[in-house]
Write a structure and sequence with these properties.
Length: 395
Amino acid sequence: MPAPDKHGVGARIAYCRSVMRPKLSQRQLADAANVSLGAIRKIERGERGVSDAMLDAIADALGVDPARLLADRAPAHTRVRDALPALSAALATYDLPDDGPFRPNRELHTAVVEAARWRLAAQYTQIARKLPDLLIELARAYHSTLAEHRTELACLLVQAYRSADAVAYKFGAHDLSARLIELMRWAVPVSGDPLLAASVAYVRTETFFAARAYAAGLRVLEQAVDAAPAPTSPPTIAARGALHMRAAVIAGRAGHAAAAVSHLDEARALAGLVAEDVYYGTAFGPDSVKIHEVSVAVSLGAEHVSRALDIADQWQPPQDLPAERRSGFYIDLARAQLWSGLADDAFESLKVARHIAPQHTREHPWVREDAATLRRLKRADSETLTNFAEWCSAT
């Protein structure tokens, strides 16, 4: 029998299981992951290994990305990057897929919803592993269906492309991200859903962020606001409000303070009319707007960051917000704190972001920039800071 590994995958699984709310017993975890109780016990004691498929199942049952459980395996960011070519290959035949099998629409819908959940939870490894095959299967289904019956499949394609785009954009594959956005724009007219079109306009802003074409991105978003359905129901209110949130941030990056404030005011007013929730794949509500208020303050520059600090002094994102959004709050806050001379606070915020969504934090360019700055400012300081800077590849 191999010597128990007290610091490996099993120990991480045991730790995650023990801090769940409510806490999971080993039997509950085994049942949720469809793994035997004996296997879970041996894995947690470090007495047996874990296959990739079993690791994914256990991670899914725990509600964490497999990256949180990795020890001596390939780093999660390497696994994601290695999967990007497969994602590109899946897109290459979007209009001429092979003749393989595909599941009924209801099962495809379940798979697409699961991928959206991974995106919101910043579980990018899951997306990178599963989306290429799902996109191929959706393309088969779409092109095997009569044109007049493709509406539902077009909706599913848009949502699946969006989940795949989260990986491409966050991991710096901006050409692939732009391709995915163009495919969303290709499929959305077939869906006939104006709210889905609004969500695609929201995502399209990534191309302008990547190109630093902020003024152009603001124009496109303002056109999308004008084209969005009237805000007469929670989904239509959220669609318009999300566009205003996004417009506020890109206006800040463009240096248009008045436009940023105006869009933020519009978003805040609309958020007051709905409960915080995920609408058409985008979190929107009072908490999301508050997070964007911090982002706008940082986007406008150092002279505005006091507003971000004021918000953080009185409020923190609630635990039920999507992990990607919560980690983004602390990444933005860290930059505001760093610009305000609060180096220790900035590092604490980065560590909180890492705990919430490790992959999102690791791949964020601001994290690398700010960790490198902190390391220069505190050369003689703790090994923890050095380890963090090396973890996120700060130079």
